[in-house]
Design brief:
76% helix
Length: 191
């Protein structure tokens, strides 16, 4: 799995072959087909295991989110970690490779559902009783967040500097205070 992720992250989807992965793992390429049947099965399995490990690592933080600012701060932290670790490139390569292979695309898309579910739960908690919920559902906001993450990853790989995305997320984090739950009003007292 590690060799598969490394190949995607360093060589790209087009150059990630069974032979490339086997060389990185120091195994016979035939073992890939023996255990996984196809290269696509290995690629999806590696992406799924990697995604599940990241979900397990970030779920406790997402479950503690109590405000829109905290939610965007968590998104920024996840984004930075994924950028620094190279995971962003792995995701981009799998998404871009899936465009030409619809069956692979369906499987990659299905892996996003767990992230959308986690984001929806965190958004629900972060918004509390905010009137924003009347405008857009937490599920739609979760889908928009995951879509932004994927789009930002692709833009970074097209040559945009990562600080541009981080700067945008910093601005959104500041603006997120506008969308929190309304502060309870103290009851009016008469003299």
């Amino acid at each position: 799995m590690e060799a598969t992720v490394e190949a995607l992250g360093t060589k790209g989807f087009a150059s990630t072959s069974a032979r490339t992965i086997a060389a990185l793992a120091d195994v016979n390429p035939g073992l890939i087909f023996y255990y996984f049947g196809t290269l696509d099965e290995l690629l999806v399995t590696a992406l799924r295991e990697s995604s599940e490990a990241r979900l397990a690592r970030h779920r406790p933080s997402a479950e503690q989110v109590g405000s829109p600012q905290e939610l965007v701060a968590l998104l920024r932290r996840i984004y930075r970690e994924d950028l620094e670790s190279g995971y962003i490139r792995v995701v981009c390569e799998m998404v871009s490779g899936s465009v030409a292979r619809p069956a692979l695309g369906e499987r990659v898309t299905s892996l996003m559902q767990a992230w959308i579910d986690l984001a929806e739960e965190a958004i629900e908690r972060a918004l509390g009783d905010s009137p924003v919920k009347a405008l857009v559902s937490p599920r739609d906001l979760a889908f928009a967040g995951v879509t932004f993450y994927l789009g930002a990853n692709l833009v970074v790989h097209l040559g945009t500097e990562p600080p541009a995305v981080d700067g945008l997320l910093a601005a959104v984090e500041q603006a997120a205070g506008w969308f929190g739950s309304p502060e309870p009003q103290a009851p009016a007292t008469s003299p």
